[in-house]
Amino acid sequence: MKAEPLKEHQWLQKLAGEWIMTSDEAPTSWSENVRSLDGIWVVAEGEGEMPGGGAATTIMTLGYDPHKKRYIGTWVGSMMSHMWLYEGALDETGNVLTLETEGPDFWTEGRRAKYQDIIAFEDDDRRVLTSRMLNDDGTWKEVMSARYRRNK
Hints:
InterPro entries: DUF1579 (IPR011473). This is DUF1579 domain-containing protein. The chain has one helix at 7-12; strands at 17-22, 31-37, 41-50, 54-65, 70-77, 84-90, 96-104, 112-123, 126-134, 140-150. Strands 1-2-3-4-5-6-7-8-9-10 form a 10-stranded antiparallel beta barrel. The protein has one domain (7-150): Calycin beta-barrel core domain (Lipocalin), CATH 2.40.128.20. With 152 residues, it is mainly beta.
């Protein structure tokens, strides 16, 4: 069985390349290399220094499941033991991918929380990753934001 890339898979190829994280708040040394697996999946490997946390490595996989009609993926990082499982969709503009997931609540021990990781393209060479957590009152709280620019 050979999967043929769909237009949804083609969207993921926009992520392919070498990226550098940029920050207005503090200097950063984070880079990410995103490669395609035959036009069906992308694998993003990040490495660098965490603010106040030392060296870290991350791996994200993203693909599209035509049966679910949803983007799917995973994220793992050397700084934690939880594997994040993604499922999400593009917005109407085709520039913003919202990935939903669930994991440990970083502020309340033993509790789980719902999160979103949002990848928003500003143009072909600039994107923003925003992570947010669902509050008890139904509002979203931003927990992290990172700007990336394409290096190659």
